[in-house]
Amino acid sequence: MKILVTGGAGYIGSHVVKALGLEGHELLVYDNLSTGHEWAVMYGTLVKGDLEDRALLEKVFREFRPDAVMHFAASIQVEESVRRPLLYYGNNTAGTLNLLDVMVRTGVRCLVHSSTAAVYGIPDVVPVAETAPLAPINPYGSSKAMVEKILADLALAEDFRYVAIRYFNVAGADVACRLGQAYREATHLITRALKTAHGQYERLQIFGTDYQTPDGTCIRDYIHVDDLAAAHVLALDYLTEGGASEIVNCGYGHGFSVREVIEAVAHVTGTPFPVEETGRRPGDPPALVADSSKLRSLMKWEPQYDNLDFIIRTAWEWELALKRRESCAA
């Protein structure tokens, strides 16, 4: 198949590009490289472009003529979204609207969309199922919830099908240490903790210790990025086999607190590091854990890497490799 991947040079997108490339698909990656990297595109052709550039986007679609689209291009930091809401509604909602308009006008009818558990806000029941009400508490979650509504309306109005995958906290790196998180400023807990263990930061901050959780810190469902990539490939297969539009969660169904993650990072790296307790960040729910039974049953997803130490170990090996890469470049 010919597949266009937006945001395919970024952390999650690049792992999906790898998985698709290994299956032999013909790929075009469309990425503005604001957070992605050219070296992370292991398969296919990279076109540098922004979703705001509708003329370039349409040109790429008409020349490449994809059979389906995988959509990862988005801004994803919860705390930043609270400070810069217009950026998130612009990049995530308006950018996706541009993409969908070009898809419809060029006759591309299948989309696998990167959504988020942030659409749930603070769920009443944990683990949270897809039937839970959407009540986002930050602009990031709201921007993604708006996209899901647009997708639902479009699927009713047009011959258009999609799978929106709501994923929880993605972590880890390619098991062969070829890809991983390489953001210019680390914000994800595991990556930040690893960089602190490596000496890049003086201390790791814990944002909030008074949540209604067993140890007072936030609980999240951490999923290995390769398991998430496999879910995207299965979603694509589901659509190409004629499956109806669906929304599915992707997570392991159990969570770890911030303190538990810090302990695991210290154990895996063999390096205890300073921790500073500080106040809550705006927009952080106390606990988010996935009920992924729908994904498992409908698309036969069987995760391979449901182990926090393994997730951290792959991320740690990647951090060491990234440090060596940066040293060689210098």
Automatic annotation (TrEMBL):
* The protein's assembly and partners: Homodimer.
Q: Which NCBIfam families match?
A: galE
Keywords in alphabetical order: Carbohydrate metabolism, Isomerase, NAD
Copy the pathway line from the protein's UniProt record.
Answer: Carbohydrate metabolism; galactose metabolism
EC numbers on record: 5.1.3.2
Q: What is this protein called?
A: UDP-glucose 4-epimerase
Q: Name one GO biological process term.
A: galactose catabolic process via UDP-galactose, Leloir pathway
Native organism: Geobacter metallireducens (strain ATCC 53774 / DSM 7210 / GS-15)
What the record says about family reads: Belongs to the NAD(P)-dependent epimerase/dehydratase family.
**Class of the enzyme per the UniProt entry, highest EC level:** isomerase
Instruction: Give the catalysed reaction(s), semicolon-separated.
Output: UDP-alpha-D-glucose = UDP-alpha-D-galactose
> What cofactor(s) does the depicted protein rely on?
NAD(+)
Q: Which GO terms describe its molecular function?
A: UDP-glucose 4-epimerase activity
Residue runs in coiled coils = none
InterPro entries membership: Epimerase_deHydtase (IPR001509), NAD(P)-bd_dom_sf (IPR036291), UDP_G4E (IPR005886)
| This protein's encoding gene | galE-2
Taking every annotated instance into account, which residue ranges of this chain make up the domain NAD-dependent epimerase/dehydratase?
3-251
Tell me the superkingdom of the source.
Bacteria
PANTHER family cross-referenced by the UniProt entry: UDP-ARABINOSE 4-EPIMERASE 1 (PTHR43725:SF53), UDP-GLUCOSE 4-EPIMERASE (PTHR43725)
